[in-house]
Amino acid sequence: MSMKNIIFAAIVFSGFTTVTLAQTAPASVNKVVTAEESFNKLVARKGIKDGFLEVTDPEGIVFKPNAVKITDFYKNIDKQPGTLKCEPKLARISAAGDLAFTAGPYVYQNGKTDDDKVFGDYVSIWRTDTENKLKLLINLGIQHPEAEQVATTDFKDPEPQKKAEVSKDPFNGKNIILATDKTFNHTASTVSTLATYKEFLSPEGRFYFPGFEPITGQDKILKFIGNEAISISAETVNAGRSLSNDLAYSYGRARIKKGNIVSNYNYVRIWEIDKGHKWNILLEIFSAIEND
Q1: H helices of the chain, where?
Q2: Angle between helices 170-190 and 193-200 (to 10 degrees)
Q3: Which of 59, 158, 271, 287 gives 20 to 30 Å between its CA and that of 139?
Q4: What is the DSSP letter of 70?
Q5: What CA dihedral angle connects 92, 94, 96 and 97, to 10 degrees?
Q6: Are residues 185 and 81 in the same domain?
Q7: How far apart are CA 156 and CA 95, in angstroms?
Q8: Which of 216, 257, 252, 220 is nearest to 236 (CA)?
């Protein structure tokens, strides 16, 4: 199947799930920004371990380096030393308010001097519980040199034209994202990595890769992938979608080849639906793991 036909199939497949517009007001992005800021205060007051345990979703995961439940990881360590300071600079929330994410720079320090500081960027995905409180579902970060410029703030409320009624079949919604993620992975490895990103990246796309500061914008991301001459083959592990059908996530494992070097990574993708009912990647982050 050609690239054009594969992408068209993915667009049509996602389009069949569109539902009637709702009349209720969409959620405010301040809800997730507040959740992230509260989490950071908890970490400062109680430490990294207790901070994570207090806000985690029962199914929440971190990558250490493989995906493991947050509760399993932190309950099995005495204490995680050092301090962690995160600053949300990017945030979105679904119209239904049930799924959201934050991203931004972090500083981890396990010592008293500036030489003990580790810099990077994090991505956190949040999901509401039965009491409509946002809980941490996925947390992943990359390390890179200290940023030369201060990151700009980008918090946006859901777009009214993308607002939709609560899905009557959330399992089907998840299957749509799983299928879309698998389509991306298949075309990236069998057709062209660069061409696949060109088709699936949002114009506002963000790309987080270890050793580099986050890259913003489709053109800059495509230039980075082209200049680095990397090819990606990946396997989807899991996914989820908001009830309002406007925000979703997926994650899995990837093998990235550059020249004769092949390295293993975890990846997390955040998807948004456009006005044409096509799912596009709003953010992608890779975290290196040891080679098999």
Answers
A1: 3-15, 30-46, 48-55, 70-75, 170-190, 193-200, 218-228
A2: 140
A3: 158
A4: H
A5: -30
A6: no
A7: 11
A8: 252
Q: Domains in the chain: how many in total?
A: 2
Same domain, yes or no: 199 and 98: no
Q: Is the domain of 132 the same as that of 174? A: no
Q: If 0-12 CB within 10 Å is exposed, 13-18 middle and 19+ buried, where does residue 88 land?
A: buried
CATH number at residue 66: 3.10.450.50
Range of the domain at 116: 30-155
Distances (CA, A) of 29 to 85, 165, 229, 259, 271: 21, 18, 36, 42, 16
Residue 61 β-bridge partners:
69, 138
Residues 6+ apart with CB under 8 A from 2: none
Domain boundary among 101, 131, 155: 155
Return the residue matching tokens 């507040």. Answer: 34
Q: How far is CA 188 from CA 21, 195, 221, 256, 283, in A?
A: 33, 8, 15, 11, 16
Q: What is the pLDDT of residues 169-222, one digit of tens each?
A: 555 689 999 999 999 999 999 999 999 999 999 999 999 999 999 999 999 999
Query: Is there a single domain that holds both residue 167 and residue 282?
Result: yes
Q: Which two tokens stand for residue 284?
A: 């992608």
Confidence of residue 282 (pLDDT cuts 50, 70, 90): very high
Same domain, 169 and 111: no
